[in-house]
Automatic annotation (TrEMBL):
GO biological process: DNA replication, synthesis of primer
Ranges where the SF4 helicase domain occurs: 178-450
Role summary: The main replicative DNA helicase, it participates in initiation and elongation during chromosome replication. Travels ahead of the DNA replisome, separating dsDNA into templates for DNA synthesis. A processive ATP-dependent 5'-3' DNA helicase it has DNA-dependent ATPase activity.
Signal peptide positions (record): none
Name of the molecule in the record: Replicative DNA helicase
The entry's keywords: ATP-binding, DNA replication, DNA-binding, Helicase, Hydrolase, Isomerase, Nucleotide-binding, Primosome
Annotated EC: 5.6.2.3
Molecular function, one GO term: ATP binding
GO cellular component, one term: cytosol
UniProt KW ATP-binding keyword: yes
Length: 450
Protein backbone atom coordinates (compact mmCIF):
# COMPACT_ATOMS: atom_id res chain seq x y z
CA UNK A 1 0.00 0.00 0.00
CA UNK A 2 1.30 3.46 -0.93
CA UNK A 3 1.00 5.81 2.11
CA UNK A 4 -0.96 9.08 2.02
CA UNK A 5 -2.66 8.35 -1.28
CA UNK A 6 -6.32 7.46 -1.89
CA UNK A 7 -7.51 4.36 -3.75
CA UNK A 8 -8.18 6.16 -7.05
CA UNK A 9 -4.75 7.84 -7.03
CA UNK A 10 -3.10 4.56 -6.08
CA UNK A 11 -4.77 2.83 -9.02
CA UNK A 12 -3.54 5.55 -11.40
CA UNK A 13 -0.02 5.26 -9.99
CA UNK A 14 0.12 1.44 -10.27
CA UNK A 15 -1.23 1.61 -13.84
CA UNK A 16 1.37 4.27 -14.70
CA UNK A 17 4.18 2.15 -13.29
CA UNK A 18 2.98 -0.88 -15.26
CA UNK A 19 2.80 1.23 -18.40
CA UNK A 20 6.34 2.52 -17.92
CA UNK A 21 7.65 -1.01 -17.37
CA UNK A 22 5.78 -2.36 -20.39
CA UNK A 23 7.16 0.39 -22.65
CA UNK A 24 10.68 -0.33 -21.34
CA UNK A 25 10.10 -3.99 -22.29
CA UNK A 26 8.71 -3.42 -25.78
CA UNK A 27 10.10 -0.14 -27.15
CA UNK A 28 13.81 -0.07 -28.04
CA UNK A 29 13.32 3.55 -29.12
CA UNK A 30 12.58 4.91 -25.63
CA UNK A 31 13.88 2.06 -23.49
CA UNK A 32 17.11 3.90 -22.72
CA UNK A 33 15.26 7.15 -21.93
CA UNK A 34 13.20 5.42 -19.25
CA UNK A 35 16.12 3.50 -17.75
CA UNK A 36 18.31 6.62 -17.59
CA UNK A 37 15.68 8.91 -16.07
CA UNK A 38 14.22 6.68 -13.38
CA UNK A 39 15.68 4.54 -10.62
CA UNK A 40 14.27 1.36 -9.05
CA UNK A 41 13.34 3.24 -5.85
CA UNK A 42 11.09 5.55 -7.86
CA UNK A 43 8.57 2.69 -8.08
CA UNK A 44 6.10 2.29 -5.24
CA UNK A 45 5.92 -1.50 -4.83
CA UNK A 46 8.69 -4.06 -4.45
CA UNK A 47 7.74 -6.19 -7.46
CA UNK A 48 8.03 -3.18 -9.77
CA UNK A 49 11.42 -2.28 -8.29
CA UNK A 50 12.70 -5.81 -8.97
CA UNK A 51 11.33 -5.84 -12.52
CA UNK A 52 12.88 -2.45 -13.29
CA UNK A 53 16.27 -3.64 -12.03
CA UNK A 54 15.94 -6.80 -14.15
CA UNK A 55 15.09 -4.81 -17.30
CA UNK A 56 18.09 -2.56 -16.64
CA UNK A 57 20.45 -5.53 -16.19
CA UNK A 58 19.17 -7.28 -19.32
CA UNK A 59 19.49 -4.05 -21.30
CA UNK A 60 23.11 -3.66 -20.15
CA UNK A 61 23.80 -7.12 -21.60
CA UNK A 62 22.55 -5.84 -24.98
CA UNK A 63 19.50 -8.11 -24.85
CA UNK A 64 15.84 -7.29 -25.45
CA UNK A 65 13.88 -7.58 -22.17
CA UNK A 66 11.13 -9.85 -23.54
CA UNK A 67 8.84 -11.79 -21.20
CA UNK A 68 10.81 -15.00 -21.82
CA UNK A 69 14.18 -13.40 -21.07
CA UNK A 70 12.78 -11.56 -18.03
CA UNK A 71 11.33 -14.81 -16.68
CA UNK A 72 14.62 -16.62 -17.10
CA UNK A 73 16.60 -13.77 -15.52
CA UNK A 74 14.29 -13.55 -12.51
CA UNK A 75 14.18 -17.34 -12.15
CA UNK A 76 17.98 -17.43 -12.04
CA UNK A 77 17.91 -14.79 -9.29
CA UNK A 78 15.16 -16.64 -7.35
CA UNK A 79 12.95 -13.58 -7.73
CA UNK A 80 10.28 -14.73 -10.18
CA UNK A 81 7.78 -15.68 -7.49
CA UNK A 82 8.46 -12.41 -5.62
CA UNK A 83 7.16 -10.39 -8.58
CA UNK A 84 4.05 -12.56 -9.10
CA UNK A 85 5.40 -15.05 -11.60
CA UNK A 86 4.82 -15.25 -15.34
CA UNK A 87 1.21 -14.16 -14.93
CA UNK A 88 2.17 -10.77 -13.50
CA UNK A 89 4.82 -10.18 -16.17
CA UNK A 90 2.22 -10.98 -18.82
CA UNK A 91 -0.19 -8.53 -17.16
CA UNK A 92 2.45 -5.77 -17.29
CA UNK A 93 3.26 -6.62 -20.91
CA UNK A 94 -0.40 -6.19 -21.85
CA UNK A 95 -0.21 -2.50 -20.93
CA UNK A 96 1.87 -1.74 -24.01
CA UNK A 97 0.06 -0.16 -26.94
CA UNK A 98 2.39 2.63 -28.00
CA UNK A 99 5.36 4.52 -26.64
CA UNK A 100 3.77 7.88 -27.51
CA UNK A 101 3.37 10.06 -24.43
CA UNK A 102 5.62 7.88 -22.30
CA UNK A 103 7.01 11.06 -20.68
CA UNK A 104 3.66 11.65 -18.95
CA UNK A 105 3.75 8.23 -17.29
CA UNK A 106 7.39 8.69 -16.28
CA UNK A 107 6.46 12.07 -14.77
CA UNK A 108 3.65 10.52 -12.69
CA UNK A 109 5.99 7.82 -11.35
CA UNK A 110 8.71 10.31 -10.49
CA UNK A 111 6.52 12.90 -8.77
CA UNK A 112 4.91 10.23 -6.60
CA UNK A 113 8.39 9.05 -5.68
CA UNK A 114 9.23 12.54 -4.39
CA UNK A 115 6.07 12.55 -2.31
CA UNK A 116 6.92 9.21 -0.71
CA UNK A 117 10.43 10.40 0.14
CA UNK A 118 8.98 13.45 1.87
CA UNK A 119 6.52 11.27 3.79
CA UNK A 120 9.35 9.01 5.00
CA UNK A 121 11.47 11.97 6.06
CA UNK A 122 8.58 13.49 8.03
CA UNK A 123 8.20 10.21 9.94
CA UNK A 124 11.96 9.99 10.57
CA UNK A 125 12.11 13.57 11.84
CA UNK A 126 9.12 12.92 14.11
CA UNK A 127 10.90 9.86 15.53
CA UNK A 128 14.02 11.93 16.19
CA UNK A 129 11.91 14.55 17.97
CA UNK A 130 10.24 11.87 20.09
CA UNK A 131 13.65 10.46 21.04
CA UNK A 132 14.69 13.89 22.39
CA UNK A 133 17.56 14.46 19.94
CA UNK A 134 19.06 17.99 20.10
CA UNK A 135 16.99 20.33 17.93
CA UNK A 136 20.11 21.61 16.12
CA UNK A 137 21.03 18.07 15.09
CA UNK A 138 17.47 17.34 13.93
CA UNK A 139 17.41 20.53 11.90
CA UNK A 140 20.69 19.65 10.18
CA UNK A 141 19.52 16.10 9.39
CA UNK A 142 16.21 17.40 8.03
CA UNK A 143 17.95 19.98 5.88
CA UNK A 144 20.36 17.42 4.46
CA UNK A 145 17.57 14.96 3.66
CA UNK A 146 15.42 17.58 1.95
CA UNK A 147 18.31 18.93 -0.13
CA UNK A 148 19.24 15.40 -1.20
CA UNK A 149 15.84 14.83 -2.78
CA UNK A 150 16.09 15.05 -6.56
CA UNK A 151 13.21 17.25 -7.66
CA UNK A 152 13.91 16.99 -11.37
CA UNK A 153 14.07 13.97 -13.61
CA UNK A 154 17.52 12.91 -14.69
CA UNK A 155 18.27 14.15 -18.20
CA UNK A 156 20.59 12.70 -20.76
CA UNK A 157 23.68 14.90 -20.83
CA UNK A 158 25.16 13.31 -23.93
CA UNK A 159 24.47 15.32 -27.07
CA UNK A 160 25.57 15.12 -30.66
CA UNK A 161 28.34 17.56 -31.48
CA UNK A 162 26.35 18.95 -34.41
CA UNK A 163 23.84 20.35 -31.89
CA UNK A 164 26.44 21.77 -29.52
CA UNK A 165 28.38 23.53 -32.27
CA UNK A 166 25.30 25.57 -33.18
CA UNK A 167 25.16 26.99 -29.64
CA UNK A 168 28.91 27.66 -29.60
CA UNK A 169 28.75 29.63 -32.86
CA UNK A 170 25.75 31.61 -31.58
CA UNK A 171 27.73 32.55 -28.49
CA UNK A 172 30.69 33.69 -30.60
CA UNK A 173 28.35 35.78 -32.78
CA UNK A 174 26.81 37.40 -29.71
CA UNK A 175 30.23 38.25 -28.29
CA UNK A 176 31.30 39.79 -31.59
CA UNK A 177 28.10 41.82 -31.78
CA UNK A 178 28.49 43.11 -28.22
CA UNK A 179 32.14 44.00 -28.84
CA UNK A 180 32.96 42.82 -25.30
CA UNK A 181 35.70 40.25 -24.75
CA UNK A 182 34.40 39.55 -21.22
CA UNK A 183 31.72 36.87 -21.31
CA UNK A 184 31.70 36.12 -17.56
CA UNK A 185 31.31 38.21 -14.42
CA UNK A 186 34.00 40.94 -14.63
CA UNK A 187 36.66 41.07 -11.93
CA UNK A 188 37.28 44.76 -12.56
CA UNK A 189 41.00 44.17 -13.21
CA UNK A 190 41.96 44.41 -16.87
CA UNK A 191 44.82 41.93 -16.91
CA UNK A 192 42.89 39.42 -14.80
CA UNK A 193 39.85 39.65 -17.08
CA UNK A 194 42.10 39.24 -20.13
CA UNK A 195 43.20 35.83 -18.79
CA UNK A 196 39.86 34.63 -17.40
CA UNK A 197 37.31 36.41 -19.64
CA UNK A 198 35.57 37.09 -16.35
CA UNK A 199 34.41 34.57 -13.77
CA UNK A 200 32.65 31.81 -15.67
CA UNK A 201 29.35 30.18 -14.70
CA UNK A 202 29.83 26.96 -12.77
CA UNK A 203 33.46 27.69 -11.89
CA UNK A 204 34.86 27.10 -8.41
CA UNK A 205 37.64 29.62 -7.73
CA UNK A 206 40.07 29.53 -4.83
CA UNK A 207 41.71 32.75 -3.59
CA UNK A 208 44.44 31.95 -1.07
CA UNK A 209 47.11 33.87 0.81
CA UNK A 210 48.87 34.14 4.15
CA UNK A 211 47.28 36.41 6.81
CA UNK A 212 47.52 40.17 6.18
CA UNK A 213 48.03 39.78 2.42
CA UNK A 214 44.58 41.28 1.86
CA UNK A 215 42.42 38.26 0.96
CA UNK A 216 39.21 39.73 2.32
CA UNK A 217 39.99 43.18 0.88
CA UNK A 218 40.65 41.71 -2.56
CA UNK A 219 37.50 39.58 -2.40
CA UNK A 220 35.47 42.66 -1.42
CA UNK A 221 36.99 44.51 -4.38
CA UNK A 222 35.88 41.68 -6.67
CA UNK A 223 32.38 41.89 -5.22
CA UNK A 224 32.23 45.68 -5.55
CA UNK A 225 33.58 45.65 -9.11
CA UNK A 226 30.97 43.05 -10.15
CA UNK A 227 28.14 44.97 -8.45
CA UNK A 228 29.20 48.24 -10.13
CA UNK A 229 28.70 46.40 -13.43
CA UNK A 230 25.11 45.48 -12.49
CA UNK A 231 25.86 41.94 -11.30
CA UNK A 232 24.17 40.48 -8.23
CA UNK A 233 26.65 39.33 -5.57
CA UNK A 234 26.31 37.42 -2.30
CA UNK A 235 29.15 37.57 0.23
CA UNK A 236 29.21 34.88 2.94
CA UNK A 237 31.36 36.28 5.75
CA UNK A 238 32.00 33.50 8.25
CA UNK A 239 34.66 35.47 10.12
CA UNK A 240 33.74 39.16 10.08
CA UNK A 241 30.39 40.74 11.09
CA UNK A 242 28.54 42.57 8.35
CA UNK A 243 28.96 46.01 9.96
CA UNK A 244 32.76 45.73 9.76
CA UNK A 245 32.54 44.36 6.25
CA UNK A 246 30.31 47.21 5.04
CA UNK A 247 32.61 49.72 6.73
CA UNK A 248 35.47 48.33 4.65
CA UNK A 249 33.31 48.57 1.52
CA UNK A 250 32.54 52.21 2.37
CA UNK A 251 36.25 52.99 2.84
CA UNK A 252 37.08 51.46 -0.54
CA UNK A 253 34.24 53.15 -2.43
CA UNK A 254 34.52 56.59 -0.80
CA UNK A 255 38.34 56.67 -0.60
CA UNK A 256 38.18 57.59 3.06
CA UNK A 257 40.89 56.16 5.33
CA UNK A 258 39.51 53.12 7.15
CA UNK A 259 40.97 54.36 10.46
CA UNK A 260 38.90 57.56 10.20
CA UNK A 261 35.73 55.54 9.74
CA UNK A 262 36.59 53.39 12.77
CA UNK A 263 37.28 56.34 15.10
CA UNK A 264 34.97 58.96 13.51
CA UNK A 265 37.33 61.67 14.79
CA UNK A 266 38.30 64.88 12.98
CA UNK A 267 36.00 64.28 10.00
CA UNK A 268 36.00 67.30 7.69
CA UNK A 269 33.15 68.52 5.53
CA UNK A 270 34.93 67.15 2.48
CA UNK A 271 35.34 63.77 4.19
CA UNK A 272 31.63 63.67 5.07
CA UNK A 273 30.83 64.49 1.46
CA UNK A 274 32.84 61.47 0.36
CA UNK A 275 31.15 59.28 2.96
CA UNK A 276 27.70 60.42 1.83
CA UNK A 277 28.46 59.94 -1.86
CA UNK A 278 30.02 56.56 -1.17
CA UNK A 279 27.02 55.37 0.84
CA UNK A 280 24.71 56.38 -2.02
CA UNK A 281 26.81 54.35 -4.45
CA UNK A 282 26.66 51.35 -2.14
CA UNK A 283 22.88 51.59 -1.84
CA UNK A 284 22.65 51.05 -5.59
CA UNK A 285 24.76 47.89 -5.49
CA UNK A 286 23.08 44.50 -5.58
CA UNK A 287 25.25 42.98 -2.85
CA UNK A 288 23.81 40.68 -0.18
CA UNK A 289 25.87 39.89 2.92
CA UNK A 290 25.32 36.85 5.13
CA UNK A 291 27.51 36.91 8.25
CA UNK A 292 26.07 33.80 9.92
CA UNK A 293 28.97 32.09 11.73
CA UNK A 294 29.62 28.37 11.49
CA UNK A 295 27.58 27.69 8.36
CA UNK A 296 27.87 24.22 6.89
CA UNK A 297 27.94 23.59 3.17
CA UNK A 298 24.31 22.44 3.04
CA UNK A 299 23.17 25.66 4.68
CA UNK A 300 25.21 27.64 2.16
CA UNK A 301 23.61 25.64 -0.65
CA UNK A 302 20.11 26.26 0.69
CA UNK A 303 20.68 29.97 1.26
CA UNK A 304 22.38 30.44 -2.10
CA UNK A 305 19.56 28.78 -4.00
CA UNK A 306 17.04 31.15 -2.39
CA UNK A 307 19.26 34.23 -2.82
CA UNK A 308 19.80 33.47 -6.49
CA UNK A 309 16.04 33.32 -6.98
CA UNK A 310 15.23 36.43 -4.93
CA UNK A 311 18.18 38.71 -5.78
CA UNK A 312 19.35 37.44 -9.19
CA UNK A 313 22.75 36.49 -7.77
CA UNK A 314 25.47 35.97 -10.41
CA UNK A 315 28.54 35.71 -8.16
CA UNK A 316 29.11 34.11 -4.76
CA UNK A 317 32.06 34.90 -2.47
CA UNK A 318 32.80 32.85 0.67
CA UNK A 319 35.23 34.05 3.35
CA UNK A 320 36.60 31.48 4.04
CA UNK A 321 36.86 27.71 3.34
CA UNK A 322 38.38 26.54 6.62
CA UNK A 323 35.57 28.18 8.64
CA UNK A 324 32.82 26.19 6.92
CA UNK A 325 31.47 23.63 9.37
CA UNK A 326 31.43 19.96 8.57
CA UNK A 327 28.07 18.31 7.86
CA UNK A 328 29.10 15.13 9.61
CA UNK A 329 29.93 15.42 13.28
CA UNK A 330 32.52 12.67 13.08
CA UNK A 331 35.19 12.53 10.44
CA UNK A 332 38.53 10.84 10.72
CA UNK A 333 40.43 14.10 10.09
CA UNK A 334 40.01 17.72 9.08
CA UNK A 335 41.67 17.12 5.73
CA UNK A 336 38.84 14.79 4.69
CA UNK A 337 36.29 17.31 5.96
CA UNK A 338 37.74 20.11 3.85
CA UNK A 339 37.98 17.78 0.85
CA UNK A 340 34.26 16.96 1.18
CA UNK A 341 33.38 20.66 1.54
CA UNK A 342 35.48 21.55 -1.50
CA UNK A 343 33.79 18.92 -3.66
CA UNK A 344 30.36 20.07 -2.55
CA UNK A 345 31.11 23.73 -3.33
CA UNK A 346 32.16 22.77 -6.86
CA UNK A 347 28.93 20.78 -7.20
CA UNK A 348 26.89 23.79 -6.01
CA UNK A 349 28.62 26.10 -8.50
CA UNK A 350 27.69 23.77 -11.36
CA UNK A 351 24.18 23.10 -10.10
CA UNK A 352 23.31 26.81 -9.67
CA UNK A 353 25.39 27.80 -12.71
CA UNK A 354 27.22 30.66 -10.99
CA UNK A 355 30.91 31.22 -10.15
CA UNK A 356 31.87 30.69 -6.51
CA UNK A 357 35.00 32.42 -5.20
CA UNK A 358 36.12 30.83 -1.95
CA UNK A 359 38.94 32.25 0.17
CA UNK A 360 41.39 29.83 1.72
CA UNK A 361 44.26 29.87 4.17
CA UNK A 362 47.77 28.76 3.35
CA UNK A 363 49.79 26.51 5.62
CA UNK A 364 52.76 27.83 7.54
CA UNK A 365 55.09 25.76 5.37
CA UNK A 366 55.47 28.73 3.05
CA UNK A 367 57.09 30.69 5.89
CA UNK A 368 59.81 28.07 6.31
CA UNK A 369 61.06 28.29 2.72
CA UNK A 370 63.61 30.72 1.44
CA UNK A 371 61.40 31.35 -1.60
CA UNK A 372 58.10 32.58 -0.17
CA UNK A 373 56.04 32.59 -3.36
CA UNK A 374 53.02 30.37 -2.58
CA UNK A 375 52.46 27.04 -4.32
CA UNK A 376 49.36 24.91 -4.68
CA UNK A 377 50.87 22.43 -2.24
CA UNK A 378 50.69 25.19 0.41
CA UNK A 379 46.88 25.13 0.43
CA UNK A 380 45.88 24.35 3.97
CA UNK A 381 44.14 21.10 4.99
CA UNK A 382 43.51 19.46 1.65
CA UNK A 383 45.16 18.53 -1.60
CA UNK A 384 41.65 17.85 -2.93
CA UNK A 385 41.21 21.62 -3.36
CA UNK A 386 43.72 21.45 -6.20
CA UNK A 387 41.55 18.92 -8.01
CA UNK A 388 38.18 20.58 -7.42
CA UNK A 389 39.06 24.20 -8.21
CA UNK A 390 38.80 25.52 -11.76
CA UNK A 391 41.00 28.49 -10.88
CA UNK A 392 43.49 28.81 -8.03
CA UNK A 393 44.83 32.29 -7.28
CA UNK A 394 47.34 33.45 -4.70
CA UNK A 395 48.05 36.93 -3.38
CA UNK A 396 51.75 37.58 -2.78
CA UNK A 397 53.50 40.75 -1.70
CA UNK A 398 57.25 40.74 -1.37
CA UNK A 399 57.15 43.62 1.12
CA UNK A 400 55.21 41.38 3.50
CA UNK A 401 58.43 39.51 4.25
CA UNK A 402 61.04 42.18 3.57
CA UNK A 403 59.54 44.93 5.73
CA UNK A 404 57.54 42.89 8.23
CA UNK A 405 54.46 44.87 7.38
CA UNK A 406 52.40 42.89 9.86
CA UNK A 407 54.31 44.82 12.53
CA UNK A 408 53.37 48.10 10.81
CA UNK A 409 57.00 48.88 10.05
CA UNK A 410 57.75 51.04 7.01
CA UNK A 411 54.22 50.71 5.68
CA UNK A 412 53.81 51.99 2.15
CA UNK A 413 50.61 53.69 1.01
CA UNK A 414 50.72 51.86 -2.30
CA UNK A 415 51.91 48.24 -2.21
CA UNK A 416 52.60 46.27 -5.36
CA UNK A 417 50.89 42.89 -5.09
CA UNK A 418 51.10 39.83 -7.30
CA UNK A 419 47.93 37.97 -8.19
CA UNK A 420 49.32 34.57 -9.13
CA UNK A 421 47.07 32.32 -11.20
CA UNK A 422 48.58 28.90 -10.55
CA UNK A 423 45.76 26.84 -12.01
CA UNK A 424 43.29 27.71 -14.75
CA UNK A 425 41.38 24.72 -16.02
CA UNK A 426 40.10 26.50 -19.13
CA UNK A 427 42.85 28.96 -19.92
CA UNK A 428 46.27 30.41 -19.25
CA UNK A 429 48.09 30.90 -15.99
CA UNK A 430 50.32 33.83 -15.09
CA UNK A 431 51.08 36.67 -12.70
CA UNK A 432 49.13 39.92 -12.64
CA UNK A 433 50.46 43.04 -10.94
CA UNK A 434 48.04 45.21 -8.95
CA UNK A 435 48.51 48.01 -6.43
CA UNK A 436 47.06 47.82 -2.95
CA UNK A 437 45.94 51.14 -1.49
CA UNK A 438 46.22 50.03 2.10
CA UNK A 439 44.46 52.99 3.73
CA UNK A 440 41.26 52.28 1.78
CA UNK A 441 41.58 48.51 1.45
CA UNK A 442 41.39 49.00 -2.29
CA UNK A 443 43.18 47.16 -5.10
CA UNK A 444 43.62 48.86 -8.47
CA UNK A 445 45.23 48.07 -11.80
CA UNK A 446 48.85 49.23 -11.95
CA UNK A 447 47.97 51.34 -14.98
CA UNK A 448 45.52 53.43 -12.97
CA UNK A 449 46.57 56.59 -11.26
CA UNK A 450 46.27 55.99 -7.54
Amino acid sequence: MVPNIDIAQQSILIDSEKTVLSIAMHSPKVNFEILSRLEADDFSIESHKIIFKAISAINQNNQTPSIAILCQYLEDKNQLEKVGGLEYLADISSYFYTDEGYEDYVHIVFKNSIGRQLDRFVIEIKQLRDSKHPIEEIFMIAQQKILNIKTELKTEDAEEIKKTIVEVVKKIEALEKNGDIINGVPSGFNDLDTITNGWQKGDFIILAARPSMGKTAFALNLAINAAERQKGVVFFSLEMPKEQLVQRVLSSVSAVDASLLRTAQNLTTETWSRITNGSEQIKNMNIVIDDSPGLNVLQIQSKLRKLKRDFNIELCVIDYLQLISSIQSRMDNRQNEVAAISRQLKKIARELNIPIICLSQLSRSVEKREEKTPLMSDLRDSGAIEQDADIIMFLYRKAYYEKKEYDNLEVQANDETDVIISKHRNGATGVIKVNFLRSYGKFIDRTKNS
